[in-house]
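Let's do one together. I've listed all components of the complex below, 225 residues spread over two lines.
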Amino acid sequence: MNIDVVYFARYREALDSDGERLDGLFDSVDDVRKALLARGEGYAMLGEQNLMCARNQELCRLEEPVADGDEVAFFPPVTGG
Amino acid sequence: MQAAAFDPGAETNAMHAANVGVGAVVSFVGYVRDFNDGREVAGMFLEHYPGMTEKALAKIVLEAEQRWPLLKVEVLHRIGALQPGEPIVFVGVASAHRQAAFQACDFVMDYLKTRAPFWKKEQTGEGPRWVEGRQSDADAAGRW
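Okay, and this is what the predicted structure of the assembly comes out as:
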C-alpha cells in the first residue's frame, strides 16, 4: 500500500523534505511513524512527545488506522493565532 | 487564509451589517509583537498546511455554532511574511446577546491556537527560530 507522508514547519526544514510516498504495510499512523523513525538520524524527531499528526488532513491520534492512498502528516505543535 | 493585510475595524463593523437581529459582536485581533521570549522580533513567516487549514477552521466554526446561538462567525488568518504591528488573526462573532458572543470568540481562538495547522517562524537578531507550542494554550483549549 502507498501512503503519502507530508512534513511541516521545523520537521520539514530539518528533514529537508516536504514529504514522500511510502510503500509498505501499515495498520496505523503510528506504524508509518515507526517506519520513518527506524531510519535514524534526523527522523528521530518523529519520536518527540508533543508530535502532532493528521490523516487525510484531519487531526488524529497515532492509533488512527490508515488505508492505501492516505495522506499522513507529521508536524510539531501548531502555533498560529 | 490570506497573504494580504486586513482592516480589523472594517471587519468588526461588517459583523452586524445587514442583520438588525445582531445585538452583540465580540471580536479578537492578534498582532505580531516586536519582542518574544527574550528576543527582539524583526518579522515572522507563517507557514500552514494548504487543504487542512480550511477544513480545520471550518470545523472549529461549526463546533462553535453548535454550542452557542450565533448569527455570524468570521475567521481571517494571515499567511506568509508579516511585520511587527501587523494583525495576524481576526475572529468576529455576532449573536443576539453578549454571553454567547464572548464565549464563542474565546472558544474559537483557543481551538484555533491548538488545532489549526499554522506555524510561526520568527526572524530575530540571533537568526530565525520556530515558535514553540505553549502548554498554557493547550490548557486553555482543554477548558471547553
